[in-house]
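Reviewer 2 asked us to include a model.

Predict the structure of this chain.
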Amino acid sequence: MLPTYSFYKNAFQGQPKPFAFVDLDLFDRNVKDILSRAKDKKIRIASKSLRSVSLMKRILEYDPQYQGIMCFTAPEAAWLASLGFDDLLVAYPTCHPEHIMMVAEHIKKGKKIYLMTDKVEHLQRINDIGKQRKVIIPVCLDLDMSSKFPGLYFGVYRSSVNSVASAKEYLDRLADFPFVSLKGVMGYEAQIAGLGNNFKGQKIKNSVIKLLQSSSIMEISARRKKVVQLVVDSVGSLDFVNGGGTGSIEITREEEHVTEIAVGSGFYTPTLFDNYGKFKHHPAAGYAIEIVRQPQKNVYTCLGGGYVASGALGADKLPTPYLPEGCSFYVNEMAGEVQTPLIYKGEENLKIGDPVFLRHSKAGELCERFNHLLLLQNGEVVEKIPTYRGDGKCFL
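Predicted model (structure tokens):
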């Protein structure tokens, strides 16, 4: 049973709005359920989807199967290393010399930090800093996991290494960079892990997506296996082979050569993850805005609330009025920067000062709007923790 409007309203009584929160009872259930879904695979936490030091520590302390952090920038990895975190994989290429230098200094101190690469230009820049600082810098090869069908590119545009042949070209150049050591392979199957296939009222769309996903899975699994074997034959044993995401755990865990799965969004479970058919996690994170006006019957105007997610423009990137049930956006205004009018057709007797609870479309992006998260447990606010923003950090 999920919490009701009155439960959250009473639990957050007196808290200044707007505020963001995490329901620890639901969050901890997600942590447990994700562990169960992964079976024996290690799980690397995707920091982009959490952006809270406290909550990442909470997950890592839950079970040793949770190992390591997948960061989104090198400065973030360096900062987390300074806070005591280790085994840090930077998920996107790092080109700025100063950022590579920051990582190199922590590696010299004994930290494990891996920089992402897929181009010779990446290797050259990293090697230059490694040579300057007299340290060998471990890197990860980013294998593109998109599929190409006739007339359709099914996936996202990431790595330039998208075949066994291009992986071999990359490996053939490694010897030119003695201060770089290839220690990992990552392949993110975005078209599986990040694309729902159970949209309400869209049977045809769901059927097409499932068909494409099924075809893609067979092809990319074979591709990853061949590339991983090629890499191992070339450089020896690897520290990890990373794959997947919240939406593909059951699929990715079946690949024997994959040693770990990256998971982030599932801990908060934003609205984009409501559209998956094979698993359901709990909506653990949200935010509250305050009713400050009632311009007419059944219309309530709230202060702020326009926290729209990144990605392709569409209604699915809007936040969703969550509680009380019966709220919807006014189509000509939607969620606004300074005010959000809501049409309400529910049973609650709403009044000025009452909260309306919304869920964000994506996970960690909500934390860029708030300095703190209120942690709720057993119906009480038990802690107020900083987000990355509250820690004074803005990495992108």
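The chain has a mean pLDDT of 93. The domain at 24-264 is CATH 3.20.20.10 (TIM Barrel). We have added this to the supplementary material.
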